Amino acid sequence: MIRWEHQDLHTRSPFGIARWTHSTYPRSFVYFEEGGLVGRGEAAPNAFYGETGETVKVIGPLLEDALGDPWDWQGLHSRLAARMPHHHPSVKCALEMAALEWCAVSANLPVWRLLGLSDVPIPESSYTVSLAELPDMRRQAHDAWDSGHTILKVKLGTEHDQQIVEALREEVPQARLRVDANAAWSRPQARRMLGVLEALDVELLEQPLAADDLDGHAALRALARLPIIADESLHHVSDVPRLAAAFDGINLKTAKLGGPLQALSALRTARALGLGIMIGCMIESSLGIAGAAHLAGLADWADLDGALLLADDPFGGLEWQAGHLARPSGVGWGVSQR
Ligand SMILES: [Mg+2]
């Protein structure tokens, strides 16, 4: 039996990036029940990848019968794609998560062990400073640093980005800073900002230019001393080879790629091509974050703070100490309903 629950989640403060600022995030949770066991998954739709809370409600039930035998999880993505060729990645992610957890619970294992992954620690996660008025961004950075977060990912994409990064470098001089322009810069602005970021000791730059501007990214990368990471340019595992010519690394998110197995496949292809790996997330509950956390020991950079930003996370059980997330040790995804 398959059951969906739809719930609006809320961030503690409005969360802003270059494209929008929101406080409410429609999320859908799927429960696959068979033989007294339950597997769970989360859909965290994002309009940039062609989904909304409403599309998830319509598409989810159309794909349920693809689950079939959950032990055939290797073939699940093909069955989902046969029923829904259009991407709809977060719905597919939810169903893939549910199949994986059901099998892991049957085997009394954490999902990462079911997948044959080794027990290596997750790199320290960054904590996001969302785009807002400058005093607000200073306060966010200050509060995060005070709570023990040493890596901050700063959202940019304005005409005064230089001023923002200078102010935050002054506010938290010891912090490791990463920046994410969310595809908002022009090529000249990106070239200008490169010098600013390098002078302020920023560690990496995520998605400076438009998603389809691979030539622009390749030219920028040729000038850069810090790694440039693709996020919006990556929708599907088949994008990875093209991105290797334009970026130093890729940001893998289960909700945009179609699930943890799709992310794992992209990760392996990316490694073969010499790319660095970031495991990232949407604003999603601890269930969705767990789906990424089980892979995150394989990453160079972790950005898994989505659930930490929520006021009403319906799941608990992930063990955080400031930016350090412990590898989940419980059976299945290792999280429980609050
Ligand atoms: Mg990003």
From TrEMBL:
Q: What keywords does the record list, in alphabetical order?
A: Isomerase, Magnesium, Metal-binding
The reply on keyword Magnesium is yes
Record flagged with keyword Metal-binding: yes
- On the tree of life, the source organism's domain of life is Bacteria
Q: Name the Pfam families on file.
A: MR_MLE_C, MR_MLE_N
The protein's matches in InterPro entries, at most eight in alphabetical order, are given as: Dipeptide_epimerase, Enolase-like_C_sf, Enolase-like_N, Enolase_C-like, Mandel_Rmase/mucon_lact_enz_CS, Mandelate_racemase_C, Mandelate_racemase_N_dom
The UniProt note on the cofactor reads as follows: Binds 1 Mg(2+) ion per subunit.
Look up the record and name the cofactor or cofactors this protein needs. Mg(2+)
Stretches assigned to the Mandelate racemase/muconate lactonizing enzyme C-terminal domain: 134-227
Q: Which Gene3D superfamilies match?
A: Enolase-like C-terminal domain (3.20.20.120), Enolase-like, N-terminal domain (3.30.390.10)
Its Enzyme Commission number(s) read 5.1.1.-
Belongs to which family?
A: Belongs to the mandelate racemase/muconate lactonizing enzyme family.
Protein name per the record = Dipeptide epimerase
Q: Which organism is it from?
A: Deinococcus rubellus
Identify the taxonomic lineage of the organism of origin: Bacteria, Thermotogati, Deinococcota, Deinococci, Deinococcales
